[in-house]
Amino acid sequence: MPSRRRLGVALVLDPPVRDEVQGLRRALGDPWLQRVSPHLTLIPPVNVRSADLAAGLEVLRSAAAVQAGLLRITLGPPATFLPDNPVLFLEVGGEIERLRQLRDAVFRSPLERPLSWPWVPHVTLADGIEENRIASAVQSLDRYAAVADFDRVVILEETRGRVWKALADARLGPPAVVGTGGLAVRITQGRVPDPLALQAIEADEEAKSSWTQIAEALDSSVPQPIVLTAHRGNEMLGTGALWRSPAGAHAAVFVVPDGRREGTGGHLLAQLESAAAEAGWDDPFVTAIGPAGFYESRSAWIRPATRTQRTRTGRAS
């Protein structure tokens, strides 16, 4: 693992607005089209020590936890930072005060950084195109407007080829809290597996092979997957996921060895069911990946794969 990671914090657009903005970017010839999804930047790129990643994730979760839920933002019309910077962007309106509160809450060590310019909320359409094309776009798209609802805040990481991918996220709103006092466990919802959970899974020979396939499935899951992380402060205790594939709905739960026999797995499973009900999942059953006895004793909906399924597919389907 690198000693430092290049991170940023953003609100990432979802369909259908994401696809609409992506179409505008493609038409304008944005050089960053294939490198980053349409987004509203809260913190521009910052180098964070790998040792500080857990603290950064806690900043993200804490900032999301004090939000009231969905954040509604209006987009448009286009504007530019010229003459200082050749950037064409969509102006941002709507719940601006809540947006500023969220930005201030994540702009903390180890995610904060010196800024060259004051923070101006915007969604970039093109960065570095010709000035005459920027001027034309500002004029021709002056009536463009859209409304975007954001339900999560995301840490993006720069990967090979300067491509930015989601590293972690946290749903806006209070987490589920299990237990009380100093031993309370918070369960945060998102769509991206916690990177510290993936590190723990990588070190667990029994879970490693299954979760490699799970991580790939989550990237392509439709509708949006449900991913939970159990944590006590900066300490990651476990994760759970619920997603769909052509074969149906699937679920998995993982708890770090030191956190087992404390009920964390059962709490994650119960919260997966609760989140699925809230999201309107109506599957008659969900196929579980992992120890059959764990699911059989705790859920009537999330069930282990049958022996027939294991024989046909070579693994739990």
Based on the model shown, name its key terms:
4-stranded antiparallel beta sheet, alpha+beta, 7-stranded mixed beta sheet, 317 residues
Distance separating the two termini: 31 Å
Question: What is the molecular shape?
Answer: globular
For the sheet with most strands, the description reads: 7 strands, mixed
User: In which order are the strands of the major sheet placed?
Assistant: 9-10-11-12-13-14-15
- The DSSP helix count reads 9
What's the order of the H and E elements? EHEHEEHEHEEEEEHHEEEHEHEH
Q: How would you classify the helix and strand content by structural class?
A: alpha+beta
The number of distinct β-strands equals 15
Helix content: 25-40%
Radius of gyration: 21 Å
Overall pLDDT metric: 91
Estimate what percentage of residues fall within beta strands. Answer: 25-35%
Oligomer: single chain
Uncertain ranges: 307-317
Topology, element by element:
Layout: E1 4-12, H1 17-28, E2 39-49, H2 53-65, E3 71-80, E4 87-94, H3 96-106, E5 122-127, H4 131-140, E6 146-150, E7 152-159, E8 163-171, E9 176-178, E10 185-190, H5 195-202, H6 205-220, E11 226-232, E12 235-245, E13 248-255, H7 264-279, E14 286-289, H8 292-296, E15 302-304, H9 307-313
Parallel strand pairs: 13-14, 14-15
Antiparallel strand pairs: 1-2, 1-7, 3-4, 3-6, 4-5, 7-8, 9-10, 10-11, 11-12, 12-13
Helix pairs in contact: 2-3
What can you tell me about this protein's structure?
The structure is a single chain. The protein is α+β, with helices and mostly antiparallel strands. Helices cover 31% and strands 34% of the residues. The protein is built from 9 helices and 15 strands. The strands form 3 sheets. The protein has a 7-stranded mixed sheet, sandwiched between helices. A hairpin with a 2-residue loop joins strand 12 and strand 13. The chain is globular, with a radius of gyration of 21 Å.
